[in-house]
Each structure stands twice: as C-alpha cells, then as structure tokens.
Design a protein that fits this description.
There is one protein chain. With 122 residues, the chain is mainly β. It contains no helices and eleven strands. It has strands at residues 2-7, 10-13, 18-26, 30-39, 46-52, 57-59, 67-72, 77-82, 91-102, 107-112, 116-121. The strands form two sheets. Strands 2, 4, 5, 6, 9, 10 and 11 form a seven-stranded mixed β-sheet that branches. Strands 1-3-8-7 form a four-stranded antiparallel β-sheet, with no helix packed on it. A hairpin with a 4-residue loop joins strand 9 (91-102) and strand 10 (107-112). 30% of the residues are buried.
C-alpha cells in the first residue's frame, strides 16, 4: 500500500508564502514523477507543478516565477514553495506521484493525496 500525506496548507494574506509538503510511504521502489495539482470551487483540477525522476520541472503559467517544486529523495517527500500568493491561488492542493511499486516486472501507478486547503485573503 502506498500513501501520500500532505501538510502545510492554511490561511495566508495576499503576498505571503506557504510551503506544502507531501510524504510518500509504503512499498516504493522509485518515482517517475511527483507533483501538485489544485482545484478551486467550480473549477477542474489543474496542474500546478511537476518534477520528474531526473529533476526536470514544469509549471503552470499562472505560477511560474512564484512557486518552486523540489523533492527530498531520502524522505520520499516533495515540496511546493509558494511565494507572492494571490487570492486566485485559493484552492485545495493535491499531491500526486507516479510510483514504482514493483521492479520485476516493473509496475508503476499514480497515487493521490487527500488534499490540503490553501486560502489566500485579499
């Protein structure tokens, strides 16, 4: 079994910062990708940022220059540093990871966390 547990959400004023963390646990042999999505009320879930096993990153245009994704391999943890937050960043943020759970044959699957609320007040 694999679990992703997020932390770090909360209420912050516009212009402030938050750092989200997501720790993966369970039978893990590696990661293909780890990332963050978000979903605001009435909106579809959208990609925020993703990091590959090789360390390449990709960001939504709306967060480029303000958010930074990173990972700590030894702790199976991915982070999202969010700076210069805006009210439109308000959403539930979900951690996701494509995790290798078996080596021979190689098996991987996508997992999701439960989500953490980020609210940015104006």
């Amino acid at each position: 079994q694999v679990q992703l547990v997020e932390s770090g959400g909360g209420l912050v004023q516009a212009g402030g910062s938050l750092r989200l963390s997501c720790a993966a646990s369970g039978t893990i042999f590696g990661f293909n990708t780890m990332g963050w999505y978000r979903q605001a009320p009435g909106n579809q879930r959208e990609l925020v940022a993703v990091i590959t096993s090789g360390g390449s990153t990709n960001y939504a245009d709306s967060v480029k220059g303000r958010f930074a994704i990173s990972r700590e391999y030894a702790k199976n943890t991915v982070y999202l540093q969010m700076n210069s937050l805006k009210p439109e960043d308000t959403a539930v943020y979900y951690c996701t990871a494509e995790i290798v759970t078996r080596l021979i044959p190689r098996v991987s699957a996508r997992y999701w966390g439960q989500g953490t609320q980020v609210t940015v007040s104006s």
